[in-house]
């Protein structure tokens, strides 16, 4: 008898928990929704791509009075590629209505999950998944913001030698490289651009090694598109600066000014931002309103403020040049190629 009474109490408590959880879904408009994301190997504190996505989702959740967790908003962190499918499955099992794959590396896992779960909304960032009516593909004109990074580098260099450190070689990261080269050459075709890839988005030691070699080669501005690997680029720059060299780093995805700070100065020249968080927030709101763009590709560019260049420590002359080129890109006078 005792067991039966305890079971009833437990069931009642569980039901109360469920009802409270459902209540937390309600937005200020009385709409219910839930959303979660899966990282691509970097953490939500990577000061880059994944962090931007999580901050966007967190902002969306809080703006609708949702709580972190089931029936609200959440994330699943991946240590490596093998975690993608299990993490997605975990979120599906928890019944999140919209699930984001943060990064092109998740496209196959998202496509597979979408096929098996047609009633769930999925979104892939930085890739295009075709043939899935419940998948929204989100892309960014990163070649445009990278072009502006190239302008900033060309206007700043004193040695006419600059560098680019990429994470893994892929179609997406190649757009950063391509845009950067075009921006540099638009200002001064005689500037040399040294390109190196780390083969990873999570190896800061490799990023530091590559950037140190560049600074030792008198390359005084280095642009990184390497996620967590980019932390090593900043370390290398700060070490060089402390030894008396005047060097700069151009950050990526988020404003990385704080990453360039050291006692006595700051090595962050500018940051080529990609507003992944804005995209996550936009799509979550659309899904909440029943207008999720499944089966479509949504592209963000300079004109709609989806990408851009933040002025961290540029000279007035360099910043004016960046603004001038941005206007030309936005009005179509300059076409930036992604390749």
UniProtKB/TrEMBL annotation:
GO CC terms in record: plasma membrane
Segment forming the signal sequence: 1-26
Domain ABC transporter substrate-binding protein PnrA-like, first and last residues per copy: 36-336
Pfam families: Bmp
Subcellular location, record wording: Cell membrane
Gene3D superfamilies per UniProt: 3.40.50.2300
Family annotation (InterPro entries): BMP_lipoprotein, Peripla_BP_I, PnrA-like
Record's bilayer topology term: Lipid-anchor
Keywords associated with the record: Cell membrane, Lipoprotein, Membrane, Signal
Keyword Protease carried by entry: no
Family from the record: Belongs to the BMP lipoprotein family.
Protein name from the UniProt record: ABC transporter binding protein
Organism, scientific name: Liquorilactobacillus ghanensis DSM 18630
